[in-house]
Amino acid sequence: MSRGDKWSAEDIIKLLKLVDDKGYAWYDISKEFPGRSQEAVRMWYRNNVGETRENTVPRIGLFDLETLPIEAYTWGLHKQYLGQDQVIQHTGLLSWSGKYLNEPKVFSDILTPEEAVARNDARITQSCWMFLHSCDVVVGHNLNKFDSKVSNTFFLLHDLPPLDYRHIDTLAIAKRYFRWESNKMGYLNHQLGLSEKMETEGFLLWRRCAEGDPEALERMETYNKQDVIALEDLFYKFRPYIHGFNVAVYNDDGEMQCPVCGCKNLSSEGYYFTPAGKWESLRCADCGAISRSKTNYLDKDKKKSLLYNKGGEW
After folding, report:
1. Burial level of 116, CB count in 10 A (0-12/13-18/19+)?
2. Domain containing residue 278
3. How much is the pLDDT for 5?
4. Could you tell me if 192 and 237 are in contact, meaning their C-beta atoms sit under 8 angstroms apart?
5. Which of 127, 141, 193 is nearest to 171 (CA)?
6. Does a structural domain hold residue 11?
7. What distance, in Å, lies between the first and last C-alpha atoms of the chain?
8. What does pTM read for this prediction?
9. Is 5:40 a contact under the CB 8 Å cutoff?
């Protein structure tokens, strides 16, 4: 993401609407932004949102963020409740990193030393919003309870509008379908032989970042980037277990496709039965996910003869 030209939230929303309305007519669009050249507007959009793409597959973004630690007065080192009047400095967005699935470039942004000391996260909150805005689907580890809610909080603080993207949380998948000794991404990737998280000196790195240490900030950005690389590996490993998501709705192809990866090489694995019908089970040759057809293979008379259990234990 570009760190040079700062755009207000109002200008961002205006630009996105103009692109939606006018397409990529940069000459006409640039006239709406006095003081910015046609090339400057085009390059800013390209660097922050991306090039044109055919909307036949969802743009899946892998995402992770880091926050500044809260500074507070405390009566001891043991676990305790801290009141609002004990807070010296509230948390803030320290850094974020993201990449599009199957694309090599890793995007990131982090506070400058001056911004870190001042806890001024307005600039990187804006670039974070732009990346997430460009995604149809966002993947994260603990995305539902941390990264998504935390980023939304910063967006609200900086008057950026809400975003609408589909969530895929690898932590939720780990908890729902498996029983590991730990569900931390570092542990899971190590156990599965995948790309691993970068080692740090622990909390000291976050403290040094909050103090504006340039070396620590550079190391944090590298750490954050490595997180999304490790996340991509974990996503592919967990992909057959993703449900409630269908890539086929993003295109007009009438052939049957795997709802998880879009592959058309599907093989029958018999039938799946529900209280209301009989459906064909299909295995994807690419990602291994199992889906089912939408055709109920029970005939009309059989459907009419079915009775429904009113409840209770078998």
Report:
1. buried
2. 255-305
3. 61
4. yes
5. 141
6. yes
7. 57
8. 0.79
9. yes
